[in-house]
Specification:
Blueprint (H helix, E strand, L loop, with lengths): L4 H19 L16 E4 L2 E5 L12 H14 L7 H5 L2 H14 L3 E5 L2 H12 L4 E6 L4 H9 L3 E5 L4 H10 L4 E7 L11 H10 L2 E6 L14 H5 L6 E6 L9 E5 L1 H10 L1 H4 L6 H16 L2 H19 L11 E7 L1 H13 L2 E2 L2 E2 L9 E6 L6 H16 L1
Parallel strand pairs: 2-11, 4-5, 4-6, 6-7, 7-8
Antiparallel strand pairs: 1-2, 3-9, 8-9, 10-13, 12-13
Helix pairs in contact: 2-12, 4-12, 5-6, 5-10, 13-15
Length: about 400
């Protein structure tokens, strides 16, 4: 059957939109890695020093995590077979939740299929048509989308502006108030003013939903996360910590007061209506937590690499933003400039991604450097010198 005029119009619209992305250097392309994730990756015949990954502790291909996965597969098979509330909640899932709650000092933890799914589930379950979500302007897309799914009003406050947020909260007539913020912002590496956010939430009877995807495993004693790093505790906090970055696996935990976690079990649609994670994934989460509990040296190595990189960048007069995390952006402005610099770095043996709109605001395209405990001091110094050469060109 021939295409209808309507279909031809729809297809032409997509073609035009893709051409527009090309014209503005905004079309994404996927690389295919021919090696495990790690500080060095192979793409075809080339091996590159990898500064693109969120594998901050170098655990994605760690033998101990692989062994935990193999043992769980041998005992429990691979698929969970059902959603958690039907029959998909196997012993490794329960053990991982108990272990993570103890690790971060939370009353209870709940395992979600991903950090994205967790944040959608939290905000939709806590929100409602009579509610209002107050969202930091630089929040990750999953918090932005979760705020929309909460079905109430969404108010965006300027990045990190506690005074502006306070004014919005004071003016709100909503019966359910939720402040949503990254704990560590994924494109800038800065840390949210969590203590001030908690004080506002306590004053205005609001929940504080924190996304600690880039803080867990990186900040705090033994990598316990941003809340531990800042010494902040509150019954107002619901915190998501992903397993797919520093902890080397997949999925996410949500921690908070027991009543909140129980409400998520009952009402978080992304939990209720998703097949549970494979039990091997939960076993890997437990193994990663055990590794961090028993040995904080891996986190110390990451921070040594962070310090070495920032010293080397200072010597090269590279203008990095302030970050004590593993994320260090070099903002260059135009998307085509970021792409050209990323290609030049790849030619020199370094994999550093160009981050462009809509991931970051217009005019702030950047090279996003992600550091790992698995990098060497020489590698991070060499990268700083390569960045300086790219900037000069």
């Amino acid at each position: 059957m021939p295409d209808s005029p309507t279909h031809r119009t729809a297809a032409a619209a997509l073609d035009a939109a893709l051409a527009d992305l090309d014209a503005r250097s905004l079309r994404r392309t996927r690389r295919v890695l021919d090696s495990p994730q790690g500080a060095h990756v192979r793409i075809g015949a080339r091996t590159l020093v990898n500064f693109s990954s969120n594998d901050y502790l170098g655990l994605a291909n760690d033998r101990r995590l692989r062994d935990a996965a193999h043992a769980a597969i041998d005992r429990y098979g691979f698929g969970a077979g059902a959603s958690p509330l039907v029959s998909g909640n196997l012993r490794p899932h329960a053990q991982a939740e108990e272990r993570f709650a103890a690790f971060v000092g939370a009353p209870r933890a709940l395992l979600f299929a991903s950090g994205y799914a967790a944040n959608l589930g939290i905000l939709a379950a806590l929100g409602g048509r009579d509610g209002e979500v107050f969202s930091d302007a630089l929040n990750h897309a999953c918090l932005v989308d979760g705020a929309r799914l909460a079905r109430g009003k969404v108010s965006v406050y300027p990045h990190g502006d506690v005074d502006a947020l306070g004014e919005l909260l004071a003016a709100s007539a909503a019966t359910r108030k939720i402040v949503a913020s990254d704990a560590v912002f994924s494109m800038d590496g800065d840390i949210a003013p969590v203590a001030a956010l908690v004080r506002l939430c306590e004053r205005h009877d609001a929940w504080l939903v924190l996304d600690d995807a880039h803080g867990i495993g990186v900040l705090g004693a033994h990598g316990r996360g941003t809340l531990d790093h800042l010494g902040v505790r509150s019954e107002r906090i619901v915190c998501m910590a992903t397993l797919g970055k520093a902890l080397g696996g997949y999925g996410a935990f949500v921690t908070g007061p027991a009543r909140v976690v129980e409400w998520l079990v009952q009402r978080a649609r992304t939990y209720i209506y998703s097949t549970a994670l494979p039990p091997a994934v939960a076993a890997v989460a437990s193994a990663a937590i055990e590794l961090l509990e028993s040995d904080g040296a891996i986190v110390d190595r990451l921070h040594a690499r962070i310090a070495a990189f920032r010293r080397a960048c200072a010597e090269e007069a590279l203008g990095l933003s302030t970050s004590e995390t593993a994320i260090h952006p070099l903002i260059v402005g135009a998307a085509e400039t970021a792409l050209a610099m990323s290609r030049a770095l790849e030619d020199g043996g370094f994999l550093v991604p160009a981050i462009r709109p809509p991931t970051v605001p217009e005019g702030t395209s950047r090279l996003r450097v992600s550091l790992s405990a698995a990098h060497t001091s020489e590698e991070v110094r060499s990268l700083a010198a390569a960045l300086a050469r790219c900037r000069t060109r």
